[in-house]
Amino acid sequence: MKTNFPETHAQQHVVLKTRKKNRVKISHIILHVVLILGAFIMVFPFLWTLSSSLKDVSQIFVVPPKWIPSPFVWSNFPDSLTSMPFGLAYWNSFYITAVVVIVSLFTSSLAAYAFAKIRFRGSSILFMLFLATMMIPKQVTLIPLYIIMGKIGWLDSHLSLIVPGALFNAFAVFLLRQFIKGIPRDLEEAAIIDGASTPRIYFSIILPLIKPALSAVGIFIFLGSWNNFIEPLIFLNTPEKFTVPLLLNQFKGLHTVDYGLLMAGTTISVIPVLIIYIFAQRKIIEGVTITGIKG
């Protein structure tokens, strides 16, 4: 009498494999649906800003809302540029952001190298205290920082925006330290045998190897500095020294707000951020991913 156990087992294996594939497909579909919804929620404010920048006030507040302006009010863009000193504000934001990024990358990489590779007493405790500052809201430190800036005469000066942001960035130090810890110590030992000093090791070995992490951290610092609003609002008083986010706030009058010009100015201010993100999104993902793996 012939038994069909092998055939039954093979059939069961095929059925289980098919069910597993179906479950994987369903999970992928659900994941993509969730991601698409999340992407739409994220991009919705920008799309509405772009649409409103081409409308007049009557179109912006129409109910039900209309996505496509009718007619298109193209004059909002030149009017927003001429009604406020946008060129000067752009220059202020650009050079402040550039200085903050360059100096912050240098100081953060130095601190990260010290915490990752140089052994000294209390380094772990000091690093934990350093990271603990990330849990303190920025609003808590504004009043002490304002008093300090007033004591040293930096109120209504761009130095009040550059120096604190450039010399202290716990997040950047943390990411760079995680990356540097993954660099083999054999490279440093070989350099020491060849007579290299600590600064030479840092400039010749460490910096070239952490370029992906530096790129990612630099982009994060750029975005944070370019979009910074609360600190310029507190420290700056002269309109000629305003940054782009602070200048946009000037479209808000005492009783009325010109939303068409405000949305047009906001759209213009987002252009550098979009350019940075479009051309550097791979660097952001690569740098953060590698940093996490190395840590």
From TrEMBL:
GO terms for cellular component: plasma membrane. Pfam families: BPD_transp_1. Keywords: Cell membrane, Membrane, Transmembrane, Transmembrane helix, Transport. It comes from the Bacteria. InterPro entries: MetI-like (IPR000515), MetI-like_sf (IPR035906). Belongs to the binding-protein-dependent transport system permease family. The chain crosses the membrane at residues 29-48, 94-115, 127-149, 161-180, 201-223, 259-280. One of its GO terms (biological process) is transmembrane transport. This is Sugar ABC transporter permease. Residues 90-280 form the ABC transmembrane type-1 domain. It is a multi-pass membrane protein.
